[in-house]
Amino acid sequence: MRLSQQDYIKDSGYTDTKNLKPALNIFYGMALAEALMFLVEKAYWNWEISYKMLLDKVCQECALGPSGMTSITRFFYDSYSRCIEGSIFDGLRMDLVSFAEELLDSEYRDEQLIGARILHKFVTNDQFSSYTLRKIGTSTEVIERLIEILNWKNPLEEEIRRSATEIVSKLAGRKQNAIRVAEIPGAIESISSLLYTGLHYDSRPHEIGHRFVVADQTDYEFSVFNLLGLMILKKLARDHDNCWKIGNARGLMPKIIDFTSTTENLLRNDLAPESQIKIVKRSLKLIKILASTTGQTGKMLRKEISDIVFTVSNIREILQYGESHMVLQMLGIEILSNLAMDEDARESIGSTGGVIRLLLSIFFMPRLTEKQNSVCTEAGEALTMLAFESRRNCNQIVMGPQVMERLVDSLNDPVLQVNSARILRNLCAYSGPECVSHFTGVAAAVPTVSLFFKLNSVSPIDIFGSCFLALIRPSNNARIEEVRRYNNNHVPSDT
């Protein structure tokens, strides 16, 4: 009835009403058409959402899980509102990833959680991970926000923090993104905040403080964050420059070293939590990468690692009790080999009680599997490095019970013969005069060594020459003629 009234200017004195009715009819018609279209559109979307379960299908295809319906519903209505209030292109330009990035930057915890959940689901989904990581990696603001979240310690924000940590872990798996992550100011320190060992660290990296218990956070999943933090650092350490940043992060290296701490009960307990063994393994892998770094950065890192008093002693516990965890033993031995590249570290390792004895025990242990062969070979390489230019370490090896005899016998073992020859070479070259009496059986092994090098097309002078020279000492006249006879009869003239 209201629309039928069209005589609004009857008493106004305005006489030109020729086009008034058509204009009003057109205006009212357009208004009614717009309202009708809105109602039809609303009915259509209600039909799609309620009857055809559109949002449920999207949630299922995106693999967002049970909590995904909240995210999808929020995304739909936000996108729809932008189309209504602004331009339709505002809604079309928004996808779930950009929507999640916006929510992650919100001040409200519920919205942050929705954003974190969406991004976490997408980066862990093979179908969407590539696009999601590429889009996140090109946004410095989003990376900075994710790094910032790593510092959150409120238990109520644990899920947000865990999701952000896993997203950063996926980002760090791509070289270009890893560089961008490490370039964020304070990124390494934020990642370090994920690592909780129950220890307090002061500004001196070679000291580790006392354990303390966070009584009000007993349900906090520290092991999950420890594993993720170590994984992120391991991925970042693939880049040489990032290794330097990790080494210079205050208090980080002592944390990493402390994760290698084990006990006999842990290593020999079949019911030990798998997460604890994983943490030890992951920390050893990270230390191995850092200790094998080249150049001045590598020297700095090896010195920093060896200066921490518990580094070698923790590895010693693994060598002593980790016979059922040969992967851990292998990693520990490889770390010792890398650290032994530096003279001070060699002496430090040798002065740690029992390390050389344990390495010899592993080197000579009975072998049945390829894994055991690999561990024995690695132990031989570590002993070779420790004996290089170190009189103290050489004397320790030589003075061991029946070590020289077993080394000579090992020259007939295809697995041990190369490292046995190298160890004997270093022992003969660098051991002190007080060990001369232990070398009486070495000259007897010359024919065996000669045969080995002949079969392998290697000149004995190349590898064993220093051993022969070391045997020819004024204090060891009884062996001079044996070595001379070997040189005259077996060494080729062109060498």
What does this structure look like?
This is Armadillo repeat-containing domain-containing protein. InterPro entries: ARM-like (IPR011989), ARM-type_fold (IPR016024). The protein has 495 residues and is mainly α. Among the domains are: 292-387, no CATH class; 407-495. The protein is 66% helix and 0% strand. It is built from 28 helices and no strands. It has helices spanning 20-51, 54-61, 68-85, 88-92, 96-104, 109-123, 129-137, 140-149, 158-172, 175-183, 187-192, 222-236, 240-248, 252-258, 264-267, 274-291, 295-307, 310-321, 326-339, 343-351, 355-363, 370-387, 391-398, 403-409, 417-430, 446-455, 460-471, 477-490. The radius of gyration is 36 Å and the shape is rod-shaped. Residues 200-216, 472-488 and 490-495 have low confidence and may be disordered.
Q: Layout of helices and strands, plus pairs?
A:
Layout: H1 20-51, H2 54-61, H3 68-85, H4 88-92, H5 96-104, H6 109-123, H7 129-137, H8 140-149, H9 158-172, H10 175-183, H11 187-192, H12 222-236, H13 240-248, H14 252-258, H15 264-267, H16 274-291, H17 295-307, H18 310-321, H19 326-339, H20 343-351, H21 355-363, H22 370-387, H23 391-398, H24 403-409, H25 417-430, H26 446-455, H27 460-471, H28 477-490
